[in-house]
Amino acid sequence: MWNKPGVRGDWFVDAALAAAVIAFTIPTTLIGYSFSIWGGAPDELEIATGVITAAAMLVRRRTPWPAIVASAVCACVTGQVVPMILAVFSMTAEHRVRQWQYVALAMTAVYFTVDYRNPHSDHSIYLNVVRALTLIYLPAVVGTWVHAYRRLIRDLRIGVREREEIAASEERRKIAREMHDTVTHAVTAMVLNAGMVRDAAEPGEIRELTAVIEDKGVQALGELRHLLTVLRHEEGDLAEGIEAIARLVGEAQASGLKVDLRLDVPQGALPRQISHACYRLVQEGLSNVHKHAPDSLVHVTCEVSGDQVAVSVVDTPDRADPGGKTIRAAPSLGGGYGLAGIRERVSLAQGRFFSGPTPDGGFVLSAWLPLRFPHA
């Protein structure tokens, strides 16, 4: 507990208040300046009352009642009202006691009585009331403002911490999505071509397949380097957009997939974030086809419709060529992060996402995204 600077400072303040109470009570008793509202009180009682009131200041942050009761008794026994001022302020600044107004009024009445009975007072009821309200009730009111201010600061700090945690979590998810989509697609293509190399017999075919593996590795490294550059400098655009969808389809066709593309998006019509989300959806869809349905017919569509862009990857069983060449399926590493990442991308863009089987035994991955990227 003592390692916390705030706690050590609180103890210092409480000790200073306790010392102030001692300074206001015991010396006046020793020099004969104190008085009791019912007459003379033994010095021992006045000193004990001052010490108890000072000790009550040390626990005022835990509970206000010892300081309230002790300060009221101290005022009646010694005639010293300063501890009451400290007690009513602590009552509202530290705890906001329920029905604090009535407690403050009761303490105000005690102050008025002590001040009126004080042999050194002016005995003016008006001035006694003004002093009682000013020195007792007003500190209690000020304490409520201090309490509200402290609570506001505490809530703001909690809110800032929560927002920082949410922002950090979102950034981690963004990085995870980009890393997954970049690495998974490239590695899937590399593993698929490596398997084809194992089955190839012609040297020319082997050289062609290894060249594809090399190209995909270079491409993956380039995308990762670009992603790291964006993350380090907090600027720049994401790597690919709809202009790279045709390349994805071409690579899929080169690996043996039967893919046709319908791309009808005017150049510059999409914000970079929306364009990148379309690219990633097509990339994920083609990767899934490689893994689960390499012999299917695949239809890739990306077109503007009204105020949104529709993008989809649909595969259907190839019943027209049941005896055709079998295409090796890419290995599935599991995890299920791909679809989750696409769903998050679409949700962040305030679009609609759908994935699921089709009636003819295929699978569809589709999204509808607004033409304008939404800002918070």
Automatic annotation (TrEMBL):
Keyword tags: ATP-binding, Kinase, Membrane, Nucleotide-binding, Phosphoprotein, Transferase, Transmembrane, Transmembrane helix, Two-component regulatory system
InterPro entries, per database record: HATPase_C_sf (IPR036890), Sensor_HK_TwoCompSys (IPR050482), Sig_transdc_His_kin_sub3_dim/P (IPR011712)
Reaction catalyzed: ATP + protein L-histidine = ADP + protein N-phospho-L-histidine
One matching Pfam family: HisKA_3
Membrane-spanning segments: 12-35, 67-88, 100-117, 129-148
Keyword DNA damage (UniProt): no
First-level EC class: transferase
Record-listed E.C. numbers: 2.7.13.3
One GO cellular component term: membrane
Annotated ranges, domain Signal transduction histidine kinase subgroup 3 dimerisation and phosphoacceptor: 171-234
Gene3D superfamilies linked: 1.20.5.1930, Histidine kinase-like ATPase, C-terminal domain
Gene Ontology molecular function terms on file: ATP binding; phosphorelay sensor kinase activity; protein dimerization activity
The protein's name in its UniProt record: histidine kinase
Species annotation: Microbispora bryophytorum
